[in-house]
Amino acid sequence: MKPENILEIKDLKVKFPVHGGLFLKKIAEVKAVDGVDLELKKGETLGLVGESGCGKSTIGKAVINILKFSSPDVDITGEVNIRTDDGEINILSLNNNETRKYRGLIQMIFQDPYSSLNARLSVGQIIEEPLLYHTKMNKTERMERVAWLLEKVGLQPEQSKRYPHEFSGGQRQRIGIARALATNPKIIIADEPVSALDVSIQAQVINLLQELQSEFDLSLLFVAHDLSVVEHISSRIAVMYLGNIVELGPGYDIYHNPIHPYSRALLSAVPLPNPKRKNKERIILKGDVPTPMNKPSGCGFRTRCPIAKKECADFIPPLELKKTDHFAACPYVQ
């Protein structure tokens, strides 16, 4: 593991079985993630973008090791190594009890602020819960921590006695952020944390995340499909298609000078708030996204790629360095 990295994902593959027939036998499998390698440096934000169903959220759930408990039949291979005080740990090799020891180091902010909070608990109890399991604080210390966290995310300590249904969507997401910060994590997985919010509220939550990242020296894996948001917050961006990383590089470079044909098409669809440039060239891809149950051989994008060649069916292209710190999984682009 490189000294500057706090998280390394190596050849991660996640397959979900599909059952059918009278006896519900396994008839197929969904290749949600198909051999992904990623690195997250200490203190950086890595944006993970792509269409719905490409495997972004699955990677996030694999990093915090909850897939095996939410889907017992899932097949996960590869490594998710995190840097801890005990050294380098492969989180996927741990059972539930062993994982609990390191759970406080990695926390997750979920996409839906309405369903991710327990409606039966008060806000104070929701934020206090991680402290009960992962710290040795007494009741007084926990309540002080809860009040401090609420202030950090722009809420009032007196609101700790209220319940989630009494808050707006943006306030609920702030509560989710406070809960994620409770245990002083090193890594936060933000799974589309602003997609369910109004645009004005999105900006507030994004700015809050950036402020907290600077203050707490957090490393963020930011999963989203809104490319403008990802470009604003990310140091680097990884573009996914059908379970594979097709392009990886600096945020500004990926957003303004994409190399891979899929990245170009994806970014051409981003609306511009400039009426003089509203008629920019839009790249329209032919066909539909193939099903993960029956991926094309070789490059998964070849059935829709405008520069595909016959040889693309023979091998899965690896990420190749095209220019400084900028990688693309296509041998036919410069």
Characterization of the model:
This protein is α/β, with parallel strands linked by helices. It has 10 helices and 12 strands. Helix 6 packs parallel to helix 7 (199-216). The two termini are 29 Å apart.
Bin the helical content: 25-40%
Instruction: Give the topology string: H per helix, E per strand.
Output: EEEHHEEHEHHHEHEHEEHHEE
The largest pleated sheet is described as: 8 strands, mixed
Mean pLDDT: 91
Contiguous uncertain segments of 5+ residues: none
Rg calc: 21 Å
Q: For the largest sheet, list the strands in their spatial order.
A: 6-7-8-3-9-10-12-11
User: How many helical elements?
Assistant: 10
Shape: globular
Strand content: 25-35%
Ends distance: 29 Å
Main structural class: alpha/beta
Number of strands: 12
Keywords:
single chain, 334 residues, alpha/beta, 8-stranded mixed beta sheet, 4-stranded antiparallel beta sheet, 29% helix, globular
Quick structural gist:
By secondary structure, the chain is α/β, with parallel strands linked by helices.
Layout of SSEs?
Blueprint: E1 5-20, E2 25-41, E3 45-49, H1 56-63, H2 67-70, E4 75-84, E5 87-90, H3 96-103, E6 106-109, H4 123-134, H5 139-152, H6 169-181, E7 187-191, H7 199-216, E8 219-223, H8 227-233, E9 236-241, E10 244-250, H9 251-256, H10 261-268, E11 320-323, E12 326-328
Parallel strand pairs: 3-8, 3-9, 6-7, 7-8
Antiparallel strand pairs: 1-2, 1-4, 4-5, 9-10, 10-12, 11-12
Helix pairs in contact: 4-5, 4-6, 5-6, 6-7
